[in-house]
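To fix ideas, we reproduce below one chain and its tokenised fold.
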Amino acid sequence: MSTNIEAISSVNEYDGTEPPIEQLFTDSDEEYDVNKDQCVESYLDNEEWNEDDYTSEEEGEVEVNIENEGEIMKRFDVEDNEKISLEKFMIFVDVHEFRSVLRDYIIQENFDIIRVKNEKARVTAICASEGCPWRIHASPSPDGIAFMIKSYEPRHTCIRKFEKRNANSTWIAKKLKQSLNADPNMSYELMSNELITKFGVEAHPKQLYRARRKGREEVEGSHALSYKKIVKFANLLLEKKQGGSIVRLEYYDQMTLEEENHNLRSMSVLKLVDGLRVKIMMRFYTQFSSTASWSYNVGPRIATEINKTTEDARYCKVKPAGGHRYEVYDGFTRFPVNLVLHTCECKAWQISGLPYKHGAAAIIYIRGKVENYCDAYYHKDKYIIAYSGLHSPLPDLDTLDDTDVLPPPLRRLPGRPRKSRIREKDEDAPSNARRISTVRCSNCKDLGHNKKSCQRAPIRAKKAKQIFYYSILK
């Protein structure tokens, strides 16, 4: 008997802990399920889960209370260019994804918001129009892994705004990422048309300029960060190319040089050097592979030149002088030719290394092949040797380690950034130049600009003069 009394007293004794929430419901399965769901909904509506300092016990109780988790919680998943819809209990990866989706949603629905709370632990936003009931609140999920919409009121009573202020340059660069990857120099007109067609956004030209610059930096790399890998890249080039050397400049023709690198000038220094390396690598491979299709002992261009010279040689008259020496008459003019020394009195053979019509006439006279009398550097075997040094492929630049190399200090000059190349003093103007005469600056005496756009003029001189005149008048 005493044992039963002790047992009863131990059961009725309050131990300071709350009973499981399941004991609050009835024994009926239907009533249990309904009351339980109502209890959870009531708890969420009243508290809105604004308490961000959840303890492990509270998280455990919430997990127990939610049954059929797949029906209540929904993972956010939307493909590109699909309409976004937000729901209560929707799950996101983290707060950054939620902020990105929220920005896309308000741009899609044409309204502005006020972010009451915008922290890592919670985000609360309301409609910017006064009196509109739209409101959303999100914070970490009970398990602390994801980010969940805890409270959401989707109704709007305001008028939609067509001015989309949240469509900034960063958002535009993100939405046009694929287009900018395919064409980093995408025109502003194409960017504007794509934004209007896909998202209904009319962007300002300055926004398009910043968006294209950000998209280009993401694709081509930042100019400042590329210097941290430039030393490792140079060492990698010397390591892969055993016994080789780096040539500073191989072209002396400015037109050829501009044709090679005009698409790379806007890239960062690392992407620029690597892009030139890829161009040279492909050029070597293309030229080396093209020798298999040669039908002569010389290249196609030289073969065309020889055929033209052979046609002109038909109108020349040849008289042998003995010892591989000949006199060739071109009209009323006489030219001595030596087939052993590869010389002609007109000096064309010595200069170009190709027989001119006088030498070609002497070669045809002895029934020889003109291509055999060309300089050795035009022959097929020399061409193969020149392009046989194939380049080794390199790994991705992102795998290179960073160093402590810093970029040179950036000094932004006044005025619009210059895109045209600075030409040499003795270099001709471009063929498509609009200006017939060159403008000379009255300030620095240089050509190509006037005093108004001079970048060497003192910036504050004009303001000082205005202040001086104002003080005199006063």
Summary: The chain is about 40% helix and 10% strand. The chain has a mean pLDDT of 76. The radius of gyration is 40 Å.
